[in-house]
Amino acid sequence: QVQLVESGGGSVQAGGSLRLSCEASGYTFSSGCVGWFRQALGKEREGVASISRGDITTYADSVKGRFTITRDNAKNTLYLQMNSLKPEDTAMYYCAASGSYFCISSVRHFDYWGQGTQVTVSS
Three-state DSSP class for 31? Predict the structure, then answer.
C-alpha cells in the first residue's frame, strides 16, 4: 500500500521561505512522475511543480523562479523549496505520485496523494 506523508508546512511572513518534504512508503519516487499540488480555500487543486522519471522539472507560472522541486532518491524523499513566499501562496500543499514516465499537470494524472500540509503566508 502506497503512503505519502508531507511535512514542513507552517506560517511565515511574505518574503520568507519554507521547505516541504514528502516521504513515501510502498512507492519509489524515482520510478515515475512526482509532484506538488496546492489547493487554496474555495479554489480547485492546482499543479505547482513536478519532476518526471527523467528529471524534467515543470513549474506553474506563478511559482517559477521562486520554488524548486527536487528528489533525493537515496532517501526516497521529495522536496519543494519555496522562497519569496507571497500571501497568494497560502494553501494546503499535497504531494502526488504517478506511475507514468512523463508528467502531466493534471490531478487525474496522479495515482497517489498525501494528506497535505498547510502553508500560510501573511502580509
Answer: helix
Q: Which three cell numbers stand for residue 85?
A: 513566499
Question: Which among 49, 34, 48, 33 is positioned nearest to 91, based on CA atoms?
Answer: 48
Amino acid in position 101? Y
- pLDDT score, position 105: 83
- 3-state SS assignment for residue 6: strand
CA-wise closest residue to 112 among 44, 48, 22: 22
Asked whether the beta carbons of 19 and 5 are under 8 A apart, the reply is no
Instruction: Cell numbers for 84, please give them.
Output: 519569496
Question: Is the model's pLDDT at 99 over the cut of 90?
Answer: no
**Cell 512507492 belongs to residue:** 27
